[in-house]
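Lab intake sheet, docking and co-folding queue.

SAMPLE TYPE: protein with bound small molecule
LIGAND NAME: magnesium ion
LIGAND FORMAT: SMILES
REQUESTED OUTPUT: full 3D complex as structure tokens
PRIORITY: normal
SUBMITTED BY: R.K., bench team

The fields below were copied directly from the construct record.
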Amino acid sequence: MDFQELLAWADQQVLAHTGKPLDDLQKAILRGTWEREKYSDIANSYHCTEVHVKKVASQLWKTLSQSLGDGEQINKSNLRSMFHRWQVSNLSVFSRHIGHIGNVSVCGNASHPLEFPKQQQSDRSPSPNKSKPHIDRSEAPDLEYCCDRSHELDTLKNLLLEKRTRLITISGISGMGKTAIALQLLSEIEDKFDYIIWRSLRGSPTPETTLKSLTQFFSNIPQNRKNQKEEEQLSLLIEYLRNNRCLIILDDLHKVLEKNKLVGHYQPGYENYRNLFQTIAELSHQSCLIFNSWELPLEIVDLKNKNAPISCLELESLGKTANKILEKEGLLDQEKWSELINIYGGNPHWLKIAATGIQDLFGGRVGEYLQYKPLFLGDELIVILKQHLTRITDLEKQILLQISSQKEPVSISWLRESSDRSNSDILNAIRSLTKRSLLEKIERQNSTLFTVKQIFQEYLLEQNLST
Ligand SMILES: Nc1ncnc2c1ncn2[C@@H]1O[C@H](COP(=O)(O)OP(=O)(O)OP(=O)(O)O)[C@@H](O)[C@H]1O
Ligand SMILES: [Mg+2]
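RESULT FIELD (auto-filled):
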């Protein structure tokens, strides 16, 4: 008698009674009980509450007891002995049935797969073919990815595959490569998931629309359950994330965040995204949601503080690997490239725009381009910078201008002295600007100083001169 035999038997019984195979928590309960663990230990290793484990276990014992007949009752303390008795009394049937059951691998002769009665087979949710995950990337773009971000990719892979993080955020200023790295990640790990879905929030879909589109993708969810209320749709989604290994990617989350407010607030009518993220981070399942955004919503910090299995990756400068972009664009004066990369914050999109301008106006000579002050940024980039600046509050704008006008980084006390706004207003605004990646923090001799990201300084300077 071994555990795999028990698992195979339990899977068959649960399937016969509920139409669904064992889910991960039920398997964890069986394994824990088999190894004589307490419910509290099972709850700990499954990252859920003991009450929840007890509830699921009680239902599981009830279902398994029904298969014994004769009023026999299975419980935590007699599972082994009851199963043994059942095995002895059903020996001939049982030995034919050891094989591969659903996604539960069992020992024995795989050439004798368990034959479910026809009715049960058709009730069963189609389990995705392991070698071919179900992927919907119809809303994902195709992007170039030539500069190495292997360090960030390794971090993401470790979070997804080793740490089983449930919610991952990839943040960073526009053009930094959030979408590109998520696409690259997908191409490297897609075989590790049963289902992968990519949804763009560029058109600001409501949380209800997004939730509906996710549940619709998981086509195993019966048709008659697809039109349910949001709360029910959310629990359906979680049910699915629990029973399958799914990866959801939501791109451009900042499109549903509020403008002209401090960082991290949802637009009115979009607050239920908070509920979606909280639920995915807090409830136990085997899947992951990744979102890309310029900014993080407020609840993310709170969830991190609560030790939920979530992680945040902020994409920063490509550094000297951005040379590849400049090389591809055919730029000259290689000794000036690091200066150019620094000015553009190592941002691949902005560097591509700069390279085109340098080709058009200076025949690719970077040295000549850098001589002209303020720097020529070009309309294409200005449109992007303006998009960032139209999101911020008036006080944030005022602070950006104040800091930009200084040659050296400034301290909080300098800002407080040069403004008539309250302490907390100023501190909140600085924090918000830092989170939006518009301000950079510099630690110097026991003090924290702030400076405006160089490309925004160039833009604000250019604006000032032209007005
Ligand atoms: N590692 C990379 N190597 C080469 N090019 C890259 C890399 N990462 C991004 N790019 C290019 O930079 C541009 C911007 O990338 P991407 O769209 O991923 O940025 P983003 O951070 O998602 O921007 P946004 O927030 O505006 O959506 C694209 O043209 C992309 O091909
Ligand atoms: Mg993007």
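REVIEWER NOTE: Confidence is low (pLDDT under 50) at residues 92-129.
SIGN-OFF: pending second check by T.M.
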